[in-house]
Amino acid sequence: MKLSQKVAVVTGGDKGIGRAISLRLAKEDADVVIANIHTERAKEVRDEIKKIERRCIVIKTDVTRSNEVDMMVEKTIKEFGRIDILVNNAGISSMAPMVDLKERDWDANMSVNAKGVFLCSKAVAKHMINQRNGKIINNASLAAKRGALFLGHYSASKFAVLGLTYTMAIELAPYNITVNAVCPGIVETDMIRREWKWGRGPAGNDSR
């Protein structure tokens, strides 16, 4: 009953760490909104959550598009009346040495991993300010603490997440809103399994 009557939004909540977070929040009695660019696997997580008698909806959302993010927040407020928790988990990764890194891969990582956190936090924080309460948790990475081989673009995007987290924590504290980041190490997810295949060529994943 720790999160009874709380509403949590999880971006990229369909698999890997995001799936585990969504299920855990539900097991702690929160109602969950899964905001995902791909909805099929997200619906499977939704069905699992409903089996433990918590409410859950899936909203198709590209976190890099402000209009889709704003619509997701509006739908959540309409359905549940509030947002208490935001978990910015959506992220992508690919691997390449810096000298071979394509501009489009740099832009994609920065857009999803950093801009996505900004857009979702901005949209949700406005409602949390009115509530005078809220929690925002950003999924950064150990790569945000140090460089990572063949992951310069990914690492840079996660450093950006940490910088934004510090700023939001200061700006939102007067409204009783806490902002934190977690920096996971290697977790065996679909994305990591793709990275382990680096020897056969660049790998990528999209869990927006």
Q: What is the compact description of this entry?
A:
This protein has six helices and eight strands. It is α/β, with parallel strands linked by helices. It has a single domain, classed as NAD(P)-binding Rossmann-like Domain (Rossmann fold).
Brief descriptors of the model:
208 residues; alpha/beta; Rossmann fold; six-stranded parallel beta sheet; two-stranded antiparallel sheet; 8 strands; 46% helix; disordered C terminus
Structure, explained:
The protein is α/β, with parallel strands linked by helices and 208 residues long. It has a single domain, classed as 3-Layer(aba) Sandwich (Rossmann fold), CATH 3.40.50.720. Helices cover 46% and strands 18% of the residues. It is built from 6 helices and 8 strands. It has helices at residues 16-27, 40-51, 66-80, 103-131, 152-172, 190-196, and strands spanning 7-11, 31-36, 56-60, 85-88, 92-94, 134-139, 177-182, 204-206. The strands form 2 sheets. The chain has a 6-stranded parallel sheet, sandwiched between helices. It has a two-stranded antiparallel ribbon with strand order 5-8. Strand 6, helix 5 (152-172) and strand 7 (177-182) form a beta-alpha-beta unit. Helix 3 (66-80) runs parallel beside helix 4. It starts with 6 loop residues before the first strand and ends with a strand. The relative contact order is 0.16. Mean pLDDT is 92; it is low at 199-208.
